[in-house]
Specification:
The protein is of the alpha+beta class. The chain contains six helices and four strands, in the order H-H-H-E-H-E-H-E-E-H. It has a four-stranded mixed sheet.
């Protein structure tokens, strides 16, 4: 009979359990270890976006700001939240106008003078585009000629 298939006696079982416990605990990675920080970063990054995608989105956001494009919205608007999520961190570059007086940095007078009737509404080159716009559509409407790897 092969020695690997022989039944263990009680002493062998106890020693094997102790050995596995010692080996198992030696592989615990403490909180704050660089590997944990790296894992957290990877978990918080959307898996569908590559570095090229992020650069393209950031390029579009910068372009929209350069040409004076604005997004009008309200803090409570779910479609505005979806529009912001399309840009991710690059949304910081977008000229966002809060229309609800209860929102942070609200500019309802600007919304009224622009005749905004729904949210979100984009103002690009003097024209209004109501509703959530895809990044591809915003690129087209604004004349963006950079990388469109959205």
């Amino acid at each position: 009979m092969n020695r690997w298939f022989q039944p263990f006696d009680r002493r062998t079982t106890v020693l094997a359990t102790i050995a596995l416990t010692i080996v198992g605990t030696s592989f615990v990675i403490p909180v704050g270890h660089p590997l944990i920080a790296r894992a957290e970063t990877l978990r918080s990054t959307p898996p569908s976006l590559s570095i090229a995608d992020n650069r393209s989105i950031a390029g579009l956001a910068t372009h929209l700001r350069k040409i004076g494009a604005k997004m009008y919205g309200a803090y409570w608007c779910p479609h505005c939240s979806q529009q912001k999520e399309l840009f991710g961190a690059a949304f910081r570059s977008i000229d966002y106008v809060e229309c609800d007086p209860g929102g942070a940095n609200a500019r309802p007078d600007l919304c009224k003078s622009a005749k905004i009737t729904g949210y979100p509404t984009w103002e690009i080159k003097g024209k209004l585009y109501p509703g959530t716009q895809s990044l591809e559509d915003l690129a087209k409407l604004s004349g963006y000629s950079g990388s469109s790897n959205f």
